[in-house]
Amino acid sequence: MSKIIYGFHSVSNYIKTTPNLVEEVYIDNNRQDKRQQELSNLANECNIKLVSKTVNELNTLVKSKIHQGVVAKVKPPTKMTLNEVISGLNTTAQILILDGITDPQNLGAIIRTAECFGVDAIILPKDNSANIDNLSVAKTSSGAVNNVPVVTVNNLSQAMDTLKEHEFWIAGTCLDKKSVNLFEFKFQGKIAWVMGSEGSGIRRLVMENCDYLVTIPLKGTTQSLNVSVATGVVLAYASFMQNSFTDK
Question: How far apart are CA 92 and CA 90, in angstroms?
Fold first, then answer.
């Protein structure tokens, strides 16, 4: 089933990375600036149909006024199972497990960050999670949702067991008496990071299934980070660690 995406970053990224999935691009018939022209040229180069629409028509398509004058009708990427994703990964693979991320903008920001740091796949629970097909997720991710495999599973703990069977270490991020300083945590090989919701964090059963628990040391009076920011810190550190071992 086709879906709607909007915004210059999301639409242009979709065209650049998966033009075969873009069915039509709708543009504001009153907007004729350089940015709009560049996107129109990109669509024409990929033989994608352009359709002029009024602002009211675009508002109706998106059910919002924040589309920037560009909307696209696209086919969703092919969904993959966890085993299909795992089968194609190497010995330095990195996976992100999201437990209870219900805010679409947080999910979109996390996906964007994950793509920037080369995360191989993201695992979401079927319940207690923002919907990957939410328009805000695609918009906030700036199209990165098309470049990172996202797997939805019925049970996170079972998915974690599957990862362990394929030689993944599982590191959960939380403030617990067993947690170690993230920047003192050393690892090699395949790893999956678990990020929990800002309110309740990682659920108990998920936490108990982690091999390690880590926490980000904070120096200010504010004792928590937005989950998308925390994910960026973790993945930046993981990238540093992997590069350190690769350089040796």
Answer: 6
